[in-house]
Amino acid sequence: MTKLPTHPIRRQLPGVLPAEYETLRERGIGQVALPTGKLVWMIVRPEYARIALSDPRFSSDKTDDRFPKLTPDSLKKLKYCAPFMINLDGPEHLEKKKSIIQEFSPAGLARLMPRLRVAVEEKIDAMLGQQTKPVDLVEELAFPIAWRLQEMFLGIPAAELRIMRENVWKLLLGTSTEAEEREAADRLNGHAIEVLKEKANHLGDDMMSRLIVQEREKHGEIDWYEMAPLMLSNAQGIHNSVSTMISLGVLTLLNHPEERPTLLADPDRMTVAVDEMLRYFSVNDGTPMRLATEDVLIGDTLIKAGDGVAVPTLPVNRDPSVCPYPHQLNLMREEPARHMAFGHGPHKCPADRLVPGLLEIVYTTLFDRVPTLALAVPEAELTYKYHSIQAFGPAEMPVTW
After folding, report:
1. Cβ(390)–Cβ(287) below 8 Å
2. What is the dihedral of CA 266, 272, 277, 279, to 10 degrees?
3. d(C-alpha 219, C-alpha 247), whole Å
4. What pLDDT does 2 receive?
5. Is residue 75 very low, low, confident or very high in pLDDT (cuts 50, 70, 90)?
6. Phi-psi bin for 220: left (phi > 0), alpha (psi -120 to 50), beta?
7. What pLDDT score does 237 carry?
8. Cβ neighbours of residue 137 closer than 8 Å, sequence gap 6 or more
9. How confident is the model at residue 1 (pLDDT cuts 50, 70, 90)?
């Protein structure tokens, strides 16, 4: 009997599609095993992925005992928190999303992008100010910019965001008894509420400030416990994904010296190139996942109520229907590919314009400022790791100039 692949399927190199995905290509869907031993359906064909990510018969509710889990019990511990937007379905999800969607609108981005441009300049200044070379671009530029993005977007100091992350992972993965769970949950929620109350006394030009004002105007008072997940969810993995794409994009541009001047001189070309990099690397390997709440026929496969579904974006975005020669990284494509690097449907990541805009700023500013930037080691000596389940990229990236 052939052993089924285990999800998440791990990469060896950021841009190389693991062979296990190709075994599913013909049908577009097939079974894989989770680390828990449970079987789920993995989808690698774009038209099937769009069904699973938009059809209301597929749920995002991770608190449902039937939901596909990578660890046996961690998601059950979310019961100690108010609902997270990403785990809600239907009208409840839409109501939560409406409260923040303006932050990602053209007007919202117009407020944020000039400030991000200044922040990127500052982080580049700091990297260039290092006393010795080579400099690790991952540690000295990619992560600092990603943390600064979260800090500015939420209006919460990075030190507090780090504590939130530690508290979340302590609850989910570092507790084994009910007493430990309650203690960790109290610490998590208590700290989040404390940060929000402090924020309410120092409002600024950021998402949490506007949410606080909005809640006060709407209800007269604020349910800090209910508001906390909007901050906690945004304090989680996005900085890993953003920092990884900064590193991978810089490495890509270093490897394409012939195209780089054209891209730097033409913002429209750079926009398409950034989109191509997002498609090609599709850094999210572990999610999205869904639970079928009713029987659904996808292609010729019957997914039964209670079955789990995994939709890794890397193989979906390498399908021949997405663009010509999908396994090639082509920075000079005439049109952006219709990819799903940010997901699809109601739960599509709302930062699908924010992140590409930031990446364009980083790549353009960095190479304008440091045209002699170069790897300080042969590329073959670079090592890669998962900075999170969503982010596989260089562990370190020594550069010089």
Report:
1. yes
2. 180
3. 44
4. 62
5. confident
6. left
7. 64
8. 127, 247, 250, 397, 398, 399
9. very low
Q: How many CA atoms lie within 13 A of 182 on its CB side?
A: 3
> How far is 128 from 134, CA to CA, in rounded Å?
10
Is-contact 146 246, C-beta < 8 A? yes
pLDDT at 284: 86
Burial profile 39-63: b = 16 or more Cβ within 10 angstroms, e = fewer: ebbbbbbbebbbbbbeeeebbbbbe
d(CA 132, CA 325): 42
| Tens-digit pLDDT profile for residues 259-305 | 999 999 999 999 999 999 999 999 988 889 999 999 999 999 999 99
Report the 3 state secondary structure along the chain. Answer: CCCCCECCCCCCCCCCCCHHHHCCCCCCEEEEECCCCCEEEEECCHHHHHHHHHCCCEECCCCCCCCCCCCCCHHHHHHHCCCCHHHCCHHHHHHHHHCCHHHHCHHHHHHHHHHHHHHHHHHHHHHHCCCCCCEEHHHHHHHHHHHHHHHHHHCCCHHHHHHHHHHHHHHHHCCCCHHHHHHHHHHHHHHHHHHHHHHHCCCCCCHHHHHHHHHHHHHCCCCHHHHHHHHHHHCCCHHHHHHHHHHHHHHHHHCCCCCHHHHHHCHHHHHHHHHHHHHHHCCCCCCCEEEECCCEEECCEEECCCCEEECCHHHHHCCCCCCCCCCCCCCCCCCCCCCCCCCCHHHCCHHHCHHHHHHHHHHHHHHHHCCCCEECCCHHHCCEEEEECCEEEECCCEEEC
pTM tops 0.85, yes or no: yes
User: Residue 341 has which token pair?
Assistant: 């690097």
What's the mean pLDDT in 215-228?
A: 94
**Six token digits for residue 181:** 């769970």
CA distance 392 to 244: 7
- State the pLDDT confidence band at 239, using cuts at 50, 70 and 90: confident
Averaged pLDDT for residues 301-316: 97
CA-based R_g, the chain, Å: 21
CA dist 106 → 224, 274, 344, 350, 398 (Å): 28, 19, 20, 12, 36
Residue with tokens 């490897």: 255
